[in-house]
From TrEMBL:
One of its GO terms (biological process) is phosphate ion transmembrane transport. One of its GO terms (cellular component) is endomembrane system. It is a multi-pass membrane protein. This is Glycerol-3-phosphate transporter. The chain crosses the membrane at residues 12-30, 51-69, 81-109, 143-164, 176-195, 232-255, 275-296, 301-318, 324-341, 362-388, 394-412. Keywords: Membrane, Transmembrane, Transmembrane helix. It comes from Aquipluma nitroreducens. Pfam families: MFS_1. Residues 16-421 form the Major facilitator superfamily (MFS) profile domain. It is found in: Endomembrane system. The keyword Kinase does not apply. One of its GO terms (molecular function) is glucose 6-phosphate:phosphate antiporter activity.
Length: 440
């Protein structure tokens, strides 16, 4: 019989879930705003696709480097410190982008922003891991990873509002889309820094990761981290994430420009239409989380592979649907989001927690996200080249190919985790699908 969770632990689990969710939600306000402003910068500053590609590549390079470094640092020094610093770096870089506003300054500041943003995922995964049991994590993470879908939607709408609003500080024009998100993220940063705690032991509570899982003391961290690096499933997930992030970040940064340039939408139409990507993605995350825990018994690879095959099919259809009007375009973009965000969240979230457990979760998340960020790094170059030479529709053929590669890769580890299904008691506080039950 599993030990009952104390009221004090329930309260702290809710608090940690909430402040970590809020922190990553907030990060998107200083990440998604650049893509919303791109069509305006293209006209007002005469910024070319190649220049955008260079800026986004610098961001992605620093994000990739930061994933590995900050994952390691979060395991060593605690996520509260590392994520807190990253949040403040993102605030500072966006404030400066709003005031300076030149392509040269964007290169440096987007790089700084990328490094700050890179602390979020691996650090916050590390922050969550000791507070939840393995068999809870698929459902917990399906709720928690809604932070970057809802964050993406809210950030897009927020930046679009400040970009198009003609009443409040109208003389600052597009600069408001950098300044306003910075102020909001600063407030969120303070909430996280003040209310987060690294693990239950910081508040005299017992972690769910038992000491029998790894050796004691400092050797515990080193052993767990070495196990992560030797785990073939981690590297399969990481290579798969390379291809998924290649596609996801193409949509994250370029979707408004695609809608504006290829489909001739207004800046406002492009900004608000692109919200469909994250809106449908929200439900994709929940579906993937429940399927992995309830249908596949905490195995993460099967549902992710299935959803990626579906994604490849919808990507193939997109160029044929967009000429039919705005409604088919919204539906197809939404379905792309649904089938992208499901496997994205599961493999970079719950799977990373499973791979790394308490002492290696940040490293596992950092490795997966770091390799994935190499795909993110190549994405802007590929988008600029293919769309410039062959047209926007040709991009979707490329997306189909990389998505199919990712889907087939996951088949190699289809049954990974099956051997651990008996490792924990059946009573794991996830007998009902209510969030309030899960985080208790």
């Amino acid at each position: 019989m599993a030990k009952a969770i104390s009221p004090e632990m329930k309260r702290w689990r809710l608090q940690i879930f909430s402040v970590t969710w809020l922190a990553y939600f907030g990060m998107y306000f200083c990440r998604k705003n650049f893509s919303v402003v791109m069509p305006v910068l293209s006209r007002e500053l005469h910024t070319s696709k190649d220049e955008f590609a260079v800026v986004i590549t610098v961001y992605s390079l620093m994000y990739m480097i930061g994933q590995f470094l900050n994952g390691y640092l979060s395991d060593r020094h605690g996520p509260r410190l590392i994520v807190g610093i990253g949040l403040l770096l993102s605030v500072i870089s966006n404030l400066m982008m709003g005031w300076m506003g030149t392509v040269g300054s964007f290169l440096f500041l987007m790089g700084l922003n990328g490094f700050g943003q890179s602390s979020g995922w691996s650090g916050l995964i590390k922050n969550l891991t000791p507070w939840f049991k393995k068999k809870e994590r698929g459902v917990v993470m399906s709720y928690w990873t809604t932070c970057y879908v809802i964050g993406g939607m809210a950030a897009t709408a927020f930046a679009t509002y400040w970009l198009s609003n003609q009443i409040i500080m109208a003389n600052l024009s597009w600069r408001r889309a950098f300044l306003a998100p910075s102020i909001l993220l600063l407030l969120i940063s303070l909430v996280y820094i003040l209310m987060a705690r690294n693990s239950p032991t910081d508040v005299n509570l017992e972690s769910f990761e038992k000491s029998t899982d790894t050796p004691k003391g400092k050797r515990k961290e080193k052993t767990a981290q070495l196990a992560v690096l030797k785990n073939g499933a981690v590297w399969i997930a990481a290579i798969m994430y390379f291809f998924v992030k290649f596609t996801r970040y193409a949509f994250l940064f370029w979707l408004p420009l695609y809608l504006s340039e290829a489909l001739k939408y207004s800046d406002q139409q492009a900004g608000y239409t692109s919200i469909a990507y994250e809106a449908f993605g929200f439900f994709g995350i929940l579906a993937a989380g429940y399927a992995s825990d309830y249908l596949f018994k905490s195995r993460r690879f099967p549902i992710s592979s299935i959803m990626l095959f579906c994604l490849a099919f919808v990507l193939y259809l997109q160029p044929h649907l967009s000429p039919l009007g705005i409604v088919p375009t919204i539906v197809s973009i939404g379905l792309i989001g649904f089938f992208t965000y499901g496997p994205d969240s599961i493999m970079s979230g719950a799977a990373a927690m499973d791979f790394g457990k308490n002492h290696g979760a940040a490293l596992a998340a950092g490795v997966i996200n770091g390799v994935g960020s190499a795909g993110q790094l190549l994405s802007p170059v590929a988008v600029a080249y293919v769309s410039g030479k062959y047209g926007w529709d040709a991009l979707f053929g490329l997306f189909v190919i990389v998505t199919l590669i990712a889907a087939f890769l996951l088949i190699l580890k289809w049954n990974y985790g099956k051997e651990n299904q008996e490792a924990e008691p059946e009573n794991t506080q996830i007998q009902t699908p209510e969030l309030s039950t899960v985080i208790e």
